[in-house]
Structures are given as C-alpha cells and as structure tokens.
C-alpha cells in the first residue's frame, strides 16, 4: 500500500514534523481580561489539539495595543501575556507537538473604541473598508475612516513586529507566522484597493510589498529565517480587499519571499470563505499550483480542504502540508481522525468568537464523535 501523503515526515525550517496536517490560525477571542492575557483555558484548548510531531499555528495575536481589532484577542507585548503563552507552548510541547505564533496588526479593521486613547485605527491610507464592525461594547457600527500612517510610524511598526517575535521566542514558541493575509494591515499595504500612498510604501508593486518584506527581513534577523513563516491570501476579498493586478502582485511577493529561506509560505486558497459553510467556489484561481512553483520552499496550503483534496494536493507536490481551520475547532484529535478515516464532529459557528469553554474545549475526542462532516 502507498503511504498516506499526509502522514509522512516533513522538514519545516528548524522543525522535523511527523505529519503534514497543520492547525490553521483561528481567532477565538477568549483571552483573559483586562490585559488580553492567554490563560489556562487557552492552554487546555491548544494542548487538546497538539499531536506528536504536528504543527499548530495560534490565533492571530496583537503585536501592540494598537494592533487590536476585536474584543478578547490575545497580545504578545506584556510580561503577563508572555507568561500566559508559555503555559500554552508547554501544553503543546508536552504532547510532542510544535506551535508557531501568528503575529498581526489589524490596521483599519478596528474601531476607535478598541484603540488606545480612543484614537482612530491606522491604515496605509485614509480609506475605510465598506460595511460594519463590532465595537468594544459588542455593537455593530459602520467602519470609521482610518488615519494614514506616517512614514516614521512604519519604522516603529517594523520594530513592534520584531519585539513580538522575540517575545514569542521567550514564551517558548517554535517560530512565528507573519500575518500578511485576510485584509489586515500588511495585506492593506500590499493591495492598491486600500493602499493609495505616494511615498515609497505605495504606488508600484515593489513599493506596496516593501512593508511586508521589511517586516519579514527584520523578524528573520531577530529570530532566524528557519523560525519564520508568512501567510498570504492572494485574491482574497475578505475585509473588503481588492487589487487591480493581483497576478503580478502575488507573483512578485512569492518570488521575493522565495529568496529568504523561510520556514514556510502559507497560502489561503481564494476559493475558501470561512465566514459561511457554503461549498467552496470551484471557479476561483488555484493558488497552490501557481505559488508552490514560484516559492519552491516549504509550502502550506489552506482553505476548504477535505481529506481527499488534502491528500491530492500533497501527492501532486502542489503543497508540502495542508492547514485545516474549522475541522480543528470541533475535532480536537483531528489529525488522528483524518488518518484513520474516523467520524468527524461538525462545528458550532455560534461559539467561534468569544465566550467560555463551550464550543472551545468541550468538543469530545474520538470516542465521543457523533455527526459526520466534510473531512
Ligand atoms: C479563521 N481564519 C483565520 N486566519 C488567519 O490567518 N488568522 C486568524 O486569526 C483567523 N481566524 C479565524 C477564525 C475562525 C473561527 C475561522 C473559522 C477561520 C481563517 C483560517 O485560518 C482558514 O484559512 C479558514 O478557516 C479556511 O480553512 P478551513 O476552515 O476551510 O479548513
């Protein structure tokens, strides 16, 4: 019998993974308040999802108070947060697993009620996203027009990413994933629907990619390229993103990242919309086929995978590993269920964001599974 392509070892930067089923980063908004501190409940959640030689990527984590865009997201800028994360990394390592911290700044996907001193959110340009956002009290309010960042603030931002990466190391993480996806600050700089700058961070593709690459390079200097991954979402429209020439932009970004000897590139397939449970959009471009060959290094593909498509993308060498989101929420032992073809538990969307242990740490392991689902 052929070996299962998902369950063969993989060298990923400094790590030797035992399998290729990665837990995708997922915001769950359950840090302890005040202070946005990871606590015992979060350590239990990640510990439940750890597996021998498997990689987890944390929920997106605020690099500064200004980076915050949602209630209850954890940070990585205070001593309490570092201590809280240390308990998380210890719980994962105790099971022989690995864990990267996804470090982010939300940019314009915030609200003044969530910002230090009630200031306006910052962005590459004063262009508001369309639609609504949840404010600090939980009310739906229209997005505000963000304030365009000054050039000197951009240099500070790069330093903030570096500090967060060093803090991640201190907290025992195996590496960091720079969040360049899903319409948050680094993605807002990349795309010309949100970036209207006329300085060296706007205009040409090279200029728009400058901030992402400066952040990546500075983080590499701080913790080593084999501990750094990058996440991108080419053509993704979440958070009102658009670009007039996605192909040239994403090819350029992938080819630049290819020169940096990263631990991995992690790309979200544009077909996936995790805000609904509708079938994937089969007509969307196939990012894995395009970017794996440009990037050449270790490539993680995510978005709308089921067992069969995940095995195929690895078997066809269009990806080296597959990250799963929603199935990991409701199946704490997801890699093992995938390996054995066991029944899967369906997720409860109502408990994705915020709340307590319900819909978080109370999904039963294998023997308690009931309803069958996608994978
Ligand atoms: C996400 N996703 C996500 N992505 C990211 O880069 N950082 C994040 O913090 C989050 N947060 C988040 C929360 C929740 C509840 C969901 C369901 C998703 C996107 C996620 O990583 C993944 O790309 C999508 O879920 C698609 O993969 P699946 O769910 O189809 O396997």
Task: Summarize this entry quickly.
This protein has 375 residues and is an alpha/beta fold.
CATH architecture: Alpha-Beta Barrel
Main beta-sheet strand count, sense and barrel state: 8 strands, parallel
Strand proportion, as a percent range, falls in: 15-25%
- The level of helicity is 25-40%
Indicate the multimeric state.
single chain
Number of helices: 10
Number of strands: 14
Spatial order of the strands forming the largest sheet:
3-14-13-12-11-10-5-4
Enumerate the distinct ligands.
ligand FNR
Structural class: alpha/beta
What is the molecular shape? globular
Query: By CATH's scheme, which homologous superfamily applies?
Result: Aldolase class I
**Low-pLDDT segments, ≥5 res:** 369-375
CATH T-level topology: TIM Barrel
Succession of helices and strands: EEEHEHEEEEEHEHHEHEHEHEHH
**Average pLDDT reading:** 96
- Through-space gap between termini: 21 Å
Tell me the domain tally.
1
Radius of gyration: 19 Å
Give the C-level CATH assignment. Answer: Alpha Beta
Describe the structure.
The chain is built from ten helices and 14 strands. By secondary structure, it is of the alpha/beta class. An eight-stranded parallel beta sheet has the order 3-14-13-12-11-10-5-4. Helix 1 (40-49) packs parallel to helix 2, helix 5 (205-223) packs parallel to helix 6 (246-257) and helix 6 packs parallel to helix 7. Ligand FNR binds at residues 24-27, 59-60, 102, 179, 181-182, 231, 268, 272, 274, 302-305, 324-326, 352. Ligand FNR binds next to strand 4.
Question: What is the element layout, followed by pairings?
Answer:
Layout: E1 10-12, E2 15-17, E3 21-23, H1 40-49, E4 55-62, H2 79-94, E5 98-104, E6 122-123, E7 132-134, E8 140-142, E9 147-148, H3 151-170, E10 175-180, H4 185-190, H5 205-223, E11 228-232, H6 246-257, E12 264-268, H7 287-295, E13 299-302, H8 307-315, E14 321-324, H9 326-330, H10 334-340
Parallel strand pairs: 3-14, 4-5, 5-10, 6-9, 10-11, 11-12, 12-13, 13-14
Antiparallel strand pairs: 1-2, 7-8
Helix pairs in contact: 1-2, 3-5, 5-6, 6-7
